[in-house]
Write a structure and sequence with these properties.
The chain is mostly beta strands and 162 residues long. The protein has four helices and nine strands, in the order αββββαβαββββα. The protein is 14% helix and 37% strand. The strands form two sheets. A seven-stranded antiparallel beta sheet has the order 2-1-5-8-9-4-3. It has a two-stranded antiparallel ribbon with strand order 6-7. The chain is globular. The protein starts with a helix and ends in a 9-residue tail after the last helix. The protein binds flavin mononucleotide (FMN). Flavin mononucleotide binds next to strand 2, strand 4, helix 2, helix 3 and helix 4.
Amino acid sequence: MTGIDAFTDVLDGPMYVVTAASDGKRAGCLVGFASQCSIDPPRFAVWLSVANHTYRLAREAEYLTVHLLHRDDRALAELFGGETGDRVDKFARVGWRPGEAGSPVLEQLSTWFTGRIEGRIEGGDHVGFLLAPVAVCPPYGDRPPPLLRYRELRHLDPGHPA
Ligand SMILES: Cc1cc2nc3c(=O)[nH]c(=O)nc-3n(C[C@H](O)[C@H](O)[C@H](O)COP(=O)(O)O)c2cc1C
């Protein structure tokens, strides 16, 4: 137990797939460390483990695309969280299209935004990417589908240990 586990063990936040592209290459991983962090200007931060293939590509990227996971998206969560781009081409197994500046948008995931990387924040074994939105999905109606949350994925073996 570290000093903060008693606090973080109770959390059950939304889960995301964050994608990046640079130099004709693509990467993406499952992310739980993410949050809106400013209203005006609108800003959102995602935290990538320095061990991850996605982090290495994101260092060279101008944009990241952040996709929100819904309950039906478990298989996609397992692909992006349980496999590493160091060994498999995740994008050969899913439908995607190049969005803003080629940033990959996953076709199965309808709730997403693309953000320009405005800054990077050293956080320890994860680095924060501060994003300013430049493109966003169409809004849901009154009843967005339920989210896929951390507790449902916490036993998944990550493709890269943090
Ligand atoms: C429940 C869960 C939450 C995770 N949260 C993060 C996270 O916030 N940031 C991160 O960089 N990796 C996180 N990961 C780990 C990556 O998704 C995983 O190691 C992935 O396989 C890395 O893929 P890559 O090497 O292709 O980037 C999480 C994994 C799981 C199972």
